[in-house]
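Input/output pair, single chain:
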Amino acid sequence: MFSYWDANELFDLVALGGNHKTRYISASTEPFNEEMEIDESKMVHWLDFFGVDYEYEKKGKNKIFIRRHVSGHASKSELFELIEKIAPLKIIPIHTMEPNLFEARFKQKVILPSNSQPIQV
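Output:
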């Protein structure tokens, strides 16, 4: 979850200078009043400032997020497809009962976390 009200976190999350491949996916409701439209416009400007990629369409001279519907958890096949498309350097499976499935599929990319232990990347 990341909205305009969290935009100050971008300073800590995204390297300045565009030397990253960060992507924002909007899964929130469309703005339904002027205040929400202004907040979305501000969010677009912050993402542009930090060079964060996102899908949008033009509405007049403004960019409007293309939204994705999300509900619940991804299926195993959807999760694996997403990982393959993103092609991360490391995968840390959390919130799963079967981390071994990630090890079997993605081999050296997987780092299994241990309870109360720091993760060495």
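The two ends are 24 Å apart (CA to CA). The chain has two domains: 4-65, 73-121.
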